[in-house]
Design brief:
This protein is an alpha/beta fold. The protein folds into 2 domains: 152 residues, VC0802-like (2-Layer Sandwich), CATH 3.30.2130.30; 189 residues, Vaccinia Virus protein VP39 (Rossmann fold). Helix content is 30%, strand content 23%. The chain is built from 11 helices and 14 strands. The strands form 2 sheets. The chain has a 7-stranded mixed beta sheet with strand order 2-3-1-4-7-6-5. The chain has a 7-stranded mixed beta sheet with strand order 10-9-8-11-12-14-13, covered by helices on one side. Strand 9, helix 8 and strand 10 form a beta-alpha-beta unit. Helix 2 packs parallel to helix 7, helix 3 packs parallel to helix 4 and helix 5 packs across helix 6. The radius of gyration is 23 Å and the shape is elongated. The N and C termini lie far apart (50 Å).
Amino acid sequence: MNKYEFISPCHFGLEAVLKREINDLGYEITHVDNGRVSYTGDINVCSRANMFLRTAERVLLKVASFKAETFDELFENTKAIPWEEFIPKDGRFWVAKANSINSKLFSPSDIQSIMKKAMVERLGSIYNIKWFEESGSSYPLRVTIMKDVVTVSIDTSGESLHRRGYRKLTSKAPITETLAAALIMLTPWNKDRILVDPFCGSGTFPIEAALIGAKIAPGIQRSFLAETWNNIFSNSIWDKAREEARDIMLNNIDMNIQGYDIDEEIIKAARQNARFAGVENMIHFQQKPLSQLSSSKKYGFIITNPPYGERLEEQKALPALYKQIGEVFGSLDSWSYYIITGYEDAEKHIGKKANKNRKIYNGMMKTYFYQYMGPKPPRKKPTFQ
């Protein structure tokens, strides 16, 4: 059976979460780098990784890796790749993205142009044509050059995997679905524990938690670009992945997940997004200010993304807001709370040092994931018949 190598990018600082997900799917990790994890497996990796990985941004099929310090070397090495094994005669192909770090070749536009010319020359001689109609399926390339080593991959996902298909309406500065899932998975939360997001916005944290708790595959509602690659993958691998996703889903599950926001329209959007995700019955959304957050229950979780003042006028309100966060969250006896924010003085105004503080890049923005861990609930005593 053929073995394939894949690469999945993720948010910087969350590689360990993605690595755990890939291991859980049963695939071998070959390399972990900043913001990406490489792994190998059989042909089913493509469909299963796209369907089940919650924290990956894409699933890239690696086709080659080589050293190139000049554009001549880049051209010749690209031309030497057996592109006919991946791209059919009518395939549409281009270098969608090129990144270069600490390398002699650094111009993305030149890298893209030269590699396209090399591919045209190779495929033209193989298919004995001079003009490519490119009327068939799309095969977008992603190229990374790190210290003069070129890694060439084809994007199997199409749209980024954070686009689950449920978020039709968003709030200002929403957190992505993949980042929300990764942050939840960094905590000890499970479906039997309360989870509250008092700044829920369009509902991403509560919805991702519900998907995790109910074992609903993040890709169940969407399609993937490689589904059209009949020259590489058969339709059966996608059918099998969807069947597996349906089989593991937990129906009629009871969870206590709550989302609050001060904006009534945003709460309406959150409810609608939950409906699109198929988890509306698993989440309680309500318009409620932070000051009204309270609970008589113990050992709950707060996971949230409060405002952190992207505009200058908003920054003036942050000290008072984070002071209130510290007071309200601290009044919830035995609860754990997890806060992602770009506000560097958050810990100071919360008034308590976090047990852990993880630096995470949300796109190009440096953020901090403050982890305040409450006590573990007592173990349930075994019952005897």
